[in-house]
């Protein structure tokens, strides 16, 4: 309580007739919080994203409403992914644990808030006694007491405890959002990787079919004395290597399927995801401005709430410097018969005031206050580091998305050229114009180009997922009083109107 507030209360007390009661004194002193006023820690916020200027072909001009609703996975337009994401929300055990932690934090808030109110207790007893020798009659004794105990929150310690518990509960809510974002992000990454594995397997199936035909042609030419045996061996090696790569892809696909089963909360033996057509959609994602990240990233929100909780702990520690007040009242009655308990002549009442003040503790309270201050400073540093890490993650994914978009166009051209080269050399070999070694080299290059293109496409999808996670997935901190409706639209976020989904 500051000096001006204390002087004001002293003037009030001086004008009261007689000696004020303990209750009046407690009421006047109520609200004298000794903790520091909370201020959100400052963080260096850039005016815009550095890499957004070079992210052509990445951000669209049209808004992405699904991101604002938090159902960001719907941006990819895959019904199977939507279904799996819904299952993750319900059955993932990491999310279930986060939900339980949030419920526990809310219960702690209710427990701390209950300490602000009086405690009312009712005690009753009945007893019958007499002499063992039987020389006197047995007697009954009954009693009932209604008691009230209250520790007024004079210095704001209890309110600071409630504030700390509320901040921890809000941080737990953000942790829950982080768990959901992480689980669905892992699901999307694994799902797209599995679909890419399906695409590569289908590609290898077509390639193996072609290699099988080439092996048969070469074998026929060898038996006719047109080709050398080395051509047959090379064709066989090419075929068997492709078959071995297909087995490896099947193993990779099975591992991804197991990971998805774990994320949806079922045993791998009870989960199966059939092969399906893969559409490598890469949605445009509105990034907004850096300041919106402070409400849209759950880890930043949780770090900020940790600072608020640490700030409240300083006030709790400081309150130990001041005396503790306690008020008690009781009404009781005792009688030899139950019906006489309610007679006024048998009723007793009592009022009490208690005050406890630490006189000497060898600096223990001061050490506790210093410890709380140091913890607050550490939480501020962690908050600022979390903000910086978030900015880095967004910039990294903007760079990755722009680079991968450019690479995909180049790899697509390279794959088309490699396909033409393979077909031309195969025709020339059939006309006995080139050796089979040139054919094998062209086939290997064509297959590698096709697979590289597929891998780039899935990398673009996973980079989009990573960018959405870096942006917070559309979640926002409701307690911050901000909504995503105030965030810039995708048209404002996009550096170039002509950019779009590729």
TrEMBL record:
<dbReference type="InterPro" id="IPR003423">
    <property type="entry name" value="OMP_efflux"/>
</dbReference>
<dbReference type="Pfam" id="PF02321">
    <property type="entry name" value="OEP"/>
</dbReference>
<protein>
    <submittedName>
        <fullName>Efflux transporter outer membrane subunit</fullName>
    </submittedName>
</protein>
<dbReference type="InterPro" id="IPR010131">
    <property type="entry name" value="MdtP/NodT-like"/>
</dbReference>
<keyword id="KW-1134">Transmembrane beta strand</keyword>
<dbReference type="GO" id="GO:0015562">
    <property type="term" value="F:efflux transmembrane transporter activity"/>
</dbReference>
<keyword id="KW-0564">Palmitate</keyword>
<keyword id="KW-0449">Lipoprotein</keyword>
<keyword id="KW-0812">Transmembrane</keyword>
<dbReference type="GO" id="GO:0005886">
    <property type="term" value="C:plasma membrane"/>
</dbReference>
<keyword id="KW-0472">Membrane</keyword>
<comment type="similarity">
    <text>Belongs to the outer membrane factor (OMF) (TC 1.B.17) family.</text>
</comment>
């Amino acid at each position: 309580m500051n000096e001006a507030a204390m002087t004001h209360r002293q003037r009030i007390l001086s004008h009261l007739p007689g000696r004020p009661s303990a209750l009046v004194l407690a009421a006047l002193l109520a609200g004298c919080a000794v903790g520091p006023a909370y201020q959100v820690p400052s963080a260096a916020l850039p005016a815009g994203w550095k890499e957004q200027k070079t992210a052509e072909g990445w951000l669209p001009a049209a808004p992405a409403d699904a991101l604002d609703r938090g159902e960001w996975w719907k941006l990819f337009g895959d019904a199977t992914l939507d279904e799996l994401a819904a299952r993750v929300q319900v059955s993932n055990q990491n999310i279930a644990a986060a939900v339980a932690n949030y419920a526990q934090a809310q219960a702690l808030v209710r427990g701390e808030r209950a300490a602000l109110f009086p405690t009312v207790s009712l005690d009753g007893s009945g007893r019958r006694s007499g002499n063992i020798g039987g020389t006197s009659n047995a007697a009954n004794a009954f009693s009932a007491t209604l008691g009230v105990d209250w520790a007024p929150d004079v210095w704001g310690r209890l309110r600071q405890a409630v504030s700390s518990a509320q901040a921890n509960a809000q941080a737990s809510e953000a942790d829950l959002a982080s768990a959901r974002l992480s689980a669905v992000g892992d699901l999307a990454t694994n799902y797209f990787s599995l679909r890419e594995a399906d695409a590569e397997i289908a590609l290898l199936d077509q390639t193996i079919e072609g290699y099988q035909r080439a092996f048969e042609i070469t074998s026929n030419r060898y038996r006719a004395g047109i080709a050398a045996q080395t051509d047959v061996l090379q064709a066989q090696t090419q075929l068997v290597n492709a078959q071995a790569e297909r087995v490896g892809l099947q193993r990779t696909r099975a591992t991804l399927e197991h990971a998805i089963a774990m994320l949806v909360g079922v045993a791998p033996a009870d989960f199966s995801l059939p092969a399906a057509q893969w559409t490598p959609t890469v949605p445009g994602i509105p990034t907004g401005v850096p300041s919106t990240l402070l409400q849209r990233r759950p880890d930043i929100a949780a770090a900020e709430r940790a600072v608020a909780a640490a700030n409240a702990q300083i006030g709790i520690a400081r309150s130990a410097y001041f005396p503790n007040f306690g008020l008690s009242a009781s009404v009781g009655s005792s009688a030899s018969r139950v019906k006489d308990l309610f007679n006024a002549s048998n009723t007793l009442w009592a009022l009490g005031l208690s005050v406890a003040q630490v006189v000497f503790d060898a600096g223990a309270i001061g050490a506790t206050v210093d410890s709380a201050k140091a913890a607050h400073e550490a939480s501020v540093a962690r908050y600022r580091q979390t903000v910086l890490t978030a900015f880095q993650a967004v910039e990294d994914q903007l760079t990755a998305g722009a680079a991968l978009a450019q690479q995909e166009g180049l790899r697509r051209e390279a794959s088309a050229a490699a396909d033409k080269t393979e077909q031309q050399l195969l025709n020339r070999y059939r006309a006995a114009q080139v050796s089979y070694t040139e054919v094998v080299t062209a086939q290997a290059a064509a297959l590698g180009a096709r697979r590289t293109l597929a891998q780039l496409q899935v990398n673009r999808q996973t980079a989009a997922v990573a960018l959405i996670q870096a942006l917070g997935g559309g979640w926002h901190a409701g307690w911050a009083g901000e909504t995503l409706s105030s965030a810039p639209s995708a048209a404002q976020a996009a550096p170039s109107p002509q950019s779009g989904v590729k």
